Request: fold
Amino acid sequence: QVQLVESGGGVVQAGGSLRLSCAASGRTFSNYDWGWFRQAPGKERELVARIYRGGGSTYYASSVKGRFTISRDNAKNTLYLQMNSLKPEDTAVYYCSARRGGIDYWGQGTQVTVSS
Reply:
């Protein structure tokens, strides 16, 4: 069972940047599809970005396309989400996910707050 730990959240002003990290346990990092999700207070969880096992295919929600970039470092077993031009509506708890064999694994989440 893979274990995921997010970090890098914080409070930033609108227009600022943050980079989130997700550290994964084990030695099978490249065998999983990876994603970032977020959930704002009172809202449903939404998919932000995905990167697939090959590393060359990605998906972004329309709300973040052009501002966020998902990437991974297989040697470090770490997933990243670079967030630029942050907006107040990006405020949420961000979760890292890993998927393999139809099973999803989740981190504990990291809070991102963007002030107006």
